[in-house]
Specification:
The protein is of the alpha+beta class and about 110 residues long. The chain has 3 helices and 7 strands. The radius of gyration is 17 Å and the shape is elongated.
Length: about 110
């Protein structure tokens, strides 16, 4: 019997890159610490400046540079999927293929799409 595929099955986790705000909640809540995120901030040209106690401040937003899940550490518990407030992670249904070495089990944005 083949394992079920599609949404809701515990296989690989898929990153929906356009939903990710680099908030780090998934990485912080992961009990195995298998998620690594790098990002930088950019000024949002479409948002009006905000008045603060120190004067006007331009609004910024995070831009995702790197998102990696190390499948050799992942427990497939789904906490990252459940905790993401922006629905940027979901179960893909496909299982992670075996690899020749541990470095091949660290999947970045390209493999997680």
């Amino acid at each position: 019997m083949n394992p079920p595929t599609g949404s809701g099955t515990h296989g690989k986790i898929r990153l929906i890159e356009e939903n990710c705000t680099s908030c780090m909640i998934c990485a912080r809540e992961c009990p195995a610490w298998c998620i690594q995120i790098d990002s930088h901030t950019e000024v949002d040209p479409n948002a009006p400046a905000q008045l603060t106690g120190r004067g006007m401040r331009e609004r910024t937003h995070n831009v995702l540079d790197r998102f990696v899940i190390d499948w050799s550490l992942c427990m497939y518990c789904g906490i990252c999927v459940e905790e993401c407030p922006f629905d940027a992670l979901e179960w893909n249904g496909a299982h992670v293929a075996p690899a020749a070495d541990l470095t091949a089990l660290a999947h970045g944005i390209g493999e997680l799409r």
